[in-house]
């Protein structure tokens, strides 16, 4: 009989039920789209944020101590180096797949033909690495200096260089202007341990102090400074999870302050501090530290993006619940005679409420299912429009949307339930 | 002990006394008509007897239960178990067939039983119309479905509010005949009407005016048969 009553209500009020279904579907589709994008957006936004450069720097331990002592960042301690042959290990840490790019840096002072002294920085550009794990990768500075503008020529192509060819270098815009250097010119640099002549591959505009420097391959800088196989620092770009209280505690008090369970959680989450910790585990006498401005900006952008999506989801659900409220209340008012009769012949408020809730929930479930499918489509549109790639469907979204649909439907039905609880059969049955 | 007893019952809405110190008894198996002009308090009295409303003052005893002291949920239970209600406007659920409309009352009372519901429809002469929707039935047929619905849970009292108010004479006669048959079977009937010809068929008629019970007449020549109207 219950099902007959429900079926009857569906058949009799199919237009209203359809409207309720469409309202639920709209709310559910937005919630589905936002939740899927939100859960998938972390990686995508992180990828986008990689354009802002490295978020971790690795320096020798003694350099870090001096930096801490004098509260300066990026200072180099004389005679403190990292080992080039250890760089590949960075791709063997627990969060290896989150290491997007990395590049070594070796600063050295060189004298140019006009007698001036400038800083030459050796690094990798499109350096090919064959890792012990069997993985092959190309990494280097271009991905970490995405904001540089190459005004002449092109980035150094390490892989195109043959053995007897002169190495390439890149000259900062200010230096190039001062010395009238152009792409294709040669430049002789004299270091403490030798002299190197490079072909200028590019003139770049960094908008910073690098505009007065020369960037050359790492091996060139090593020969100039007599530090073969060594480097002064390394920059790493890693996909990270925004810090929470646990990450902040580990950062502030050290991982040893964490309980075993917290330590495992922290270690197995891609917090910037846990990635730094894991880098220190594989690079000898190194201190890896987050570039706070970048790491915090990434975290803040991620949090704000997620907050925005949560707000849109909540507003969509509230809007849908209000729509449901109007439709269900109208439906119940239209059926007040029928409800009054049911009460008169012995139906309790609970049984009538159950009937109305069942009708609305069934409609809500159908609408929610349709909304979920539509939401998947919306998520793909958002993914392709904003991130130029599809959004992965997260199975976890299904139960969340189901719960949200039930809550939204029940919340939307509350005023109608309140109305029918207050409905007195005498007011609707006498017909006068 | 009477099946129903009203002692000094009043119903007050603000300054208006819809019922004013009404005393009345109805014995089991009795057929009573309640008459009166519009606004006399007939429906108010029916609501109180039918446990659809509570008296402001006085006591109402139904089958030994003091119903004026009960909660709304308990009144629903009493109504479900002891009272069969019939309304002027029929109030059938339009998307359910005749037999389903009868089964709704069973559903809210205990368990729906289609066979029993069909028997109830047969009692009111509607076995062949059991699977028709209300919209496919005449007014008289719809009212007979209401009678079957009211009877399905074997109530102590059948309470009808203007049961013939929306019927033509032929159907009015059929419904009154049905009441006579039910009365003969021992059903207690309380019929609220403003139609004297329907009222005088009953064993006893009480007349209300301005909320007061002003007259009570016993039909000495009770037959339960309706006289022909003067104007056909």
Provide structural commentary.
The complex is a heterodimer of chains A (432) and B (232). Chain A contains 13 helices and 14 strands. With 432 residues, chain A is α+β, with helices and mostly antiparallel strands. Chain A has two domains: 177 residues, no CATH class; 236 residues, no CATH class. In chain A, strands 1, 3, 4, 7, 8, 9, 10, 11, 13 and 14 form a ten-stranded mixed beta sheet that branches. A two-stranded antiparallel ribbon of chain A has the order 2-12. The two termini of chain A are 30 Å apart. The mean pLDDT of chain A is 84. Chain B has a single domain, classed as Rossmann fold, CATH 3.40.50.300. In chain B, 32% of the residues lie in helices and 26% in strands. A six-stranded mixed beta sheet of chain B has the order 6-7-8-3-9-10, sandwiched between helices. Chain B has a four-stranded antiparallel beta sheet with strand order 2-1-4-5, with helices on one face. The relative contact order of chain B is 0.19. The C terminus of chain B is likely disordered. Classes of the chains: A alpha+beta (432), B alpha/beta (232). At the A-B interface, helix 1, helix 10 and helix 13 of A face helix 2 and helix 3 of B.
What oligomerization state is this entry in?
heterodimer
- Number of continuous helical runs of chain A: 13
Number-wise, the strands of chain B total: 10
Biggest β-sheet strands, sense, barrel of chain A: 10 strands, mixed
- Rg over C-alpha atoms of chain B, rounded to the nearest angstrom: 17 Å
Poorly predicted parts of chain A: none
Percentage of residues in DSSP E strands of chain B: 25-35%
Mean pLDDT value of chain A: 84
CATH topology of chain B: Rossmann fold
Strand content of chain A: 15-25%
| Tally of structural domains of chain A | 2
Architecture (CATH level 2) name of chain B? 3-Layer(aba) Sandwich
What is the overall pLDDT average of chain B? 86
Write the H/E string of chain B, N to C: EEEHEEHEHHHEHEHEE
What is the number of independent domains of chain B? 1
Detail the poorly predicted runs of chain B: 228-232
């Amino acid at each position: 009989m219950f099902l007959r009553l429900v079926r009857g209500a569906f058949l009799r009020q199919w237009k209203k039920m359809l409207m309720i279904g469409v309202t639920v579907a709209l709310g559910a589709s937005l919630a589905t789209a936002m939740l899927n994008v939100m859960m998938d957006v972390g990686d995508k936004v992180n990828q986008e944020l990689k354009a802002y450069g490295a978020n971790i720097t690795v320096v020798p331990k003694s350099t870090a101590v001096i930096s801490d002592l004098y509260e300066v960042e990026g200072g180099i301690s004389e005679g403190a180096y990292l080992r080039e042959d250890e760089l590949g290990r960075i791709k063997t840490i627990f969060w290896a797949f989150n290491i997007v790019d990395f590049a070594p840096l070796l600063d050295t002072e060189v004298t140019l033909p006009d007698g001036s002294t400038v800083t030459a920085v050796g690094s990798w550009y499109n350096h090919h690495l064959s890792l012990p794990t069997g993985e092959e990768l190309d990494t280097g500075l271009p991905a970490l200096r995405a904001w540089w503008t190459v005004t002449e020529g092109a980035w150094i192509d390490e892989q195109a260089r043959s053995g007897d060819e002169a190495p390439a270098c890149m000259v900062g815009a200010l230096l190039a202007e001062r010395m009238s250097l152009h792409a294709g010119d040669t430049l002789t640099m004299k270091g403490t341990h030798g002299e190197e002549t490079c072909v200028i591959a590019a003139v770049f505009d960094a908008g910073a102090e690098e505009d007065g420097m020369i960037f050359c391959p790492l091996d060139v800088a090593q020969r100039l400074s007599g530090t073969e196989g060594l480097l002064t620092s390394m920059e790493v770009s890693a996909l990270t999870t925004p810090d929470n209280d646990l990450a902040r505690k580990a950062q502030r008090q050290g991982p040893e302050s964490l309980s075993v369970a917290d330590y495992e959680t922290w270690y197995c989450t891609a917090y910037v501090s846990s990635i730094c910790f894991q880098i220190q585990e594989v690079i000898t006498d190194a201190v890896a530290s987050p570039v706070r401005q970048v790491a915090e900006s990434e975290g803040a952008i991620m949090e704000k993006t997620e907050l925005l999506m949560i707000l849109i989801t909540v507003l969509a659900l509230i809007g849908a619940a209000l729509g449901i409220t109007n439709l269900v209340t109208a439906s119940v008012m239209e059926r007040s005679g029928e409800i009054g009769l049911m009460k008169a012949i012995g139906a309790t408020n609970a049984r009538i409420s159950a009937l109305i809730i069942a009708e609305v929930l069934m409609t809500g479930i159908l609408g929610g299912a349709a909304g979920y499918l539509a939401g998947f489509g919306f998520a793909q549109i958002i993914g392709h429009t904003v991130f130029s790639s599809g959004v992965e469907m997260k199975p976890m979204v299904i139960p969340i949307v189901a719960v949200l649909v039930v809550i939204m439907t029940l919340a939307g039905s509350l005023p109608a339930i309140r109305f029918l609880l207050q409905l007195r059969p005498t007011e609707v049955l006498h017909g006068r | 002990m009477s099946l129903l007893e009203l002692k000094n019952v009043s119903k007050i809405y603000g300054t208006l006394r819809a019922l004013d110190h009404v005393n009345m008894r109805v014995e089991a198996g009795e057929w009573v008509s309640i008459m009166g002009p519009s606004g006399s308090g007939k429906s108010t009295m029916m609501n109180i007897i039918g446990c659809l409303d509570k008296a402001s003052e006085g006591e109402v005893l139904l089958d030994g239960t003091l119903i004026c002291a009960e909660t709304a949920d308990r009144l629903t239970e009493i109504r479900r178990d002891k009272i069969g209600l019939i309304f002027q406007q029929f109030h059938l659920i339009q998307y359910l067939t005749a037999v389903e409309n009868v089964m709704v009352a069973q559903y809210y009372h205990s368990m729906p039983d289609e066979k029993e519901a069909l028997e109830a429809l047969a009692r009111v002469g509607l076995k062949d119309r059991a699977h028709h929707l209300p919209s496919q039935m005449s007014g008289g047929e719809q009212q007979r479905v209401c009678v079957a619905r009211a009877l399905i849970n074997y109530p102590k009292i059948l309470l009808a509010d203007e049961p013939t108010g929306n019927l033509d004479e032929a159907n009015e006669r059929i419904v009154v005949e049905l009441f006579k048959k039910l009365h003969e079977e021992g059903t207690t009937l309380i019929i609220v009407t403003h139609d004297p010809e329907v009222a005088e068929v009953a064993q006893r008629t009480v007349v209300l005016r301005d909320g007061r019970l002003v007259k009570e007449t016993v039909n000495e020549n009770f037959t339960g048969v309706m006289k022909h109207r003067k104007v056909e």
